Amino acid sequence: MKKLGPAVTLTTILIPFLLSGCLTVPSASERLSTADSIAQRAGLHRSKVRTQPFLITAYSRINEPGKDLHIYMEGDGYAWVTRTRVSGDPTPREPVALELAAEDSCPNVVYLARPCQYTPVEMNTVCEDEAYWTDKRFSEEVAGSIDQAIDQFVKNAQSSGIHLIGYSGGGTIATVVAVRRQDVKSLRTV
After folding, report:
1. Which pLDDT score, from 0 to 100, does residue 4 have?
2. Closest by alpha carbon to 60, among 50, 47, 73, 51?
3. What is the distance, to the nearest Å, from the Cα of residue 10 to the centroid of all Cα atoms in its chain?
4. Rounded to whole angstroms, how far apart are CA atoms 164 and 186?
C-alpha cells in the first residue's frame, strides 16, 4: 500500500476549507421567501408594524381574540459576515424563533422580527445605520419599538395577557420588554 505524503494530507484539509468560503448566503428575497413558507404552513400571516423609529416585520395568527398571546422574538440573525465584518442585512438565514412560533399550537401566536430584519432599507431608512443590529441591538430604540409592536397586537387581539419567548438576542429583548409591561404572564428564553 502506498503511503500518502504530507502535501496530499494538507491538500485534503485545505480544499474543503477554501471551498467553504465560496458558499453563498441566500439573498434577502430568498430569506423572506423561506420565512413566508415557514409561516404559511402554520397559518401565520405576514404584516408590517409601524413603530418609532422602525417598521417591524411580523407574522401572526389570531384565532381566538381575548385569549393570551404567545409572542416570539427573533435572535440577532445574520448580523455579522465574519467576526470583524458586519452584514449589510441582518435578516436571519435560519429563523429559529419563527420555526418555534410555527410549531406553537396556541390559537394566538405572534412572531416579531428584530428591527431591520425582513424589511428593505428603502422602507426603513433608519436601518442604514448597521449599529441597530450590532452595538445598538439592545438599545432603547430597539426595545421600545418591539414594545410598541406588542402593544398593537395586544390591542388588536384584545388579549388578556402575553407570554414572551425570545431566541438568543431576542431573549434579551424579551427580558427588557417584560420589565416594562404589566401584562406578561411568562417569559421564556431559548
Report:
1. 53
2. 47
3. 39
4. 6
